[in-house]
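Key result, reporting period 2: structure in, sequence out.
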């Protein structure tokens, strides 16, 4: 394996390990909150309170800036123009921070009408709660913006450890502060935990920034070449994110009128669905993004296409079984983790119904993580926006029609999945037209084998859990723990054996990545 491959392998595995820990902490946070409050208008208000602050962060930093900033800054690093890159980064930082502060002030003043627009189904007293929690969350937005800049710079230097550790600190703070002060502050304690977590998340990045030689310049030189290039790349991404957020807002608007706890049920189901995406897809895509950017900067298009294809097939290999596995263990898993305190069996069923339909599109949203970054590495931020606009328009149409019928909140989850599959097909087709053949037959073969093996695995997991739940005479939670754990282990072993027999290139790649990672420490 080349040095580049080793670096990507190490980065991907490091990210996977830390993301797994961060997700465990994240679910610990959810368990704590839902055990105390259940799924009702209180938790709906808490979820709604994230809408505006998250929108501001994603619009300026989390999505748009990182997508436009990393390709330009990484190209400067790869071509020995670091001083230029640091100057451009400083200018972008200065303008973004000012613009963000202006938007925060504006949103703070008009929080109530915005919350009412986004969640009209909430009763008045819970609108008031959502407004209060939103005001608290705005502080988090500022520090998460600083963290977003730090992460973009460090990722460009292939430094992934500090951002990963920062995410662990973030989730841990929410849990500790929330549990410590919930008796005195109610659900607002978790919001204050979000603030402290965001501050410490950024603090963790500072030593690493110094180590890579951070060079800040107080400048607003809009004529800077790098600044202009980043702005040009940002414009279509901003438009795309605006469309994406519109879709999320429509979903929240519709779900707020479907009864108490519906926003929370959809949010929890989507968080569970996002677990494999965060562990595998985002880790692989984040680790490979700087490498793909460097390859395109050096004109190595064949290696770029191979990286994109292998990344896509590796994601199919792990996320298709993950989706069917979650379908198989969904309700027992939700009951195991959350059914205690104020979280009832009815809430578990409602969450699982949404999870089932979200899982249909899990593989698609995982694959989009790589495909979007393939376009960004080519400095094409317009195509993903156009595709997103088309698919999200369809998603909104489907959401309105499916949720109005007997499907209710399940229709919102199904619409989301169908839109993701359409997005994947369009991106893959356009990328092939743009750069040439990506190994379509290999991609299709990988998808077919992974799907077939996963369907067989689904049957094994379901039968195993049904048998154990029907024969074990232990305590309810212990029955669930044994049944879910055994089902997961047998399913994973069964799937691994089938995939091993096919000797797929991507499975060998994943095994080699793991071997190289551990042999380097031997």
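The corresponding designed sequence is given below.
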């Amino acid at each position: 394996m080349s040095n580049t491959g080793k670096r990507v392998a190490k980065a991907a595995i490091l990210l996977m390990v830390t993301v797994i820990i961060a997700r465990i902490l994240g679910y610990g946070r959810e368990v704590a909150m839902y055990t105390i409050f259940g799924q009702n208008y209180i938790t709906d208000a808490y979820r709604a309170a994230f809408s505006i602050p998250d929108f501001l962060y994603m619009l300026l930093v989390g999505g748009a800036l990182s997508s436009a900033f990393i390709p330009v800054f990484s190209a400067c690093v790869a071509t020995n123009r670091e001083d230029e890159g640091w100057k451009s980064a400083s200018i972008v930082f200065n303008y973004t921070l000012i613009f963000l502060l202006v938007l925060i002030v504006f949103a703070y003043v008009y929080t109530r009408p915005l919350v009412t627009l986004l969640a009209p189904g909430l009763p008045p007293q819970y609108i008031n709660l959502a407004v209060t929690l939103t005001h608290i969350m705005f502080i988090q937005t500022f520090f998460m913006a600083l963290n977003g800049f730090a992460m973009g710079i460090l990722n460009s230097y292939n430094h992934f450890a500090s951002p990963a550790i920062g995410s662990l600190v973030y989730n841990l703070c929410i849990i500790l502060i929330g549990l410590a002060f919930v008796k005195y502050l109610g659900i607002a304690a978790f919001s204050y935990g979000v603030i402290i977590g965001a501050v410490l998340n950024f603090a963790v990045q500072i030593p690493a920034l110094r180590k890579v030689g951070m060079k800040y310049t107080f400048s607003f030189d809009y004529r800077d070449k790098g600044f202009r290039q980043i702005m040009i790349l940002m414009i279509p991404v901003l438009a795309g994110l605006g469309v994406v957020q519109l879709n999320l807002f429509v979903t929240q608007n519709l779900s707020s009128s479907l009864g108490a706890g519906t926003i929370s049920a959809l949010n929890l189901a989507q968080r569970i669905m996002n677990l494999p995406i965060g562990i595998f897809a985002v880790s692989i895509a984040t680790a490979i993004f700087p490498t793909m950017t460097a390859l395109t900067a050096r004109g190595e298009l064949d290696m770029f296409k191979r990286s994109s294809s292998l990344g896509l097939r590796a994601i199919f290999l792990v996320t298709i079984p993950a989706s069917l596995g979650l379908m198989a263990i969904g309700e027992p898993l939700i009951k195991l983790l959350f059914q205690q305190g104020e979280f009832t069996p009815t809430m578990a069923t409602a969450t699982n119904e949404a999870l089932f339909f979200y899982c249909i599109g899990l593989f698609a949203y995982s694959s989009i993580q790589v495909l979007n970054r393939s376009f960004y590495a080519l400095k094409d931020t317009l195509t993903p926006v156009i595709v997103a606009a088309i698919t999200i328009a369809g998603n909104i149409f489907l959401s309105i029609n499916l949720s109005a019928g007997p499907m209710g909140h399940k229709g919102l989850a199904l619409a989301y999945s169908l839109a993701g599959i359409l997005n994947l097909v369009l991106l893959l087709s356009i990328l092939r037209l743009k750069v040439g053949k990506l190994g379509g037959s290999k991609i299709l073969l990988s998808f077919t084998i992974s799907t077939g093996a996963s369907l067989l695995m689904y049957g094994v997991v379901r039968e195993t859990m049904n048998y154990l739940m029907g024969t074990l005479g232990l305590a309810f939670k212990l029955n669930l723990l044994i049944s879910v754990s055994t089902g997961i282990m047998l399913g994973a072993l069964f799937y691994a054996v089938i995939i091993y027999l096919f000797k797929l290139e991507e499975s060998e790649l994943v095994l080699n990545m793991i071997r190289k990672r551990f042999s380097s420490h031997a």
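Confidence is low (pLDDT under 50) at residues 516-522. The chain has one domain: 3-519. This case is discussed further under Risks and Mitigation.
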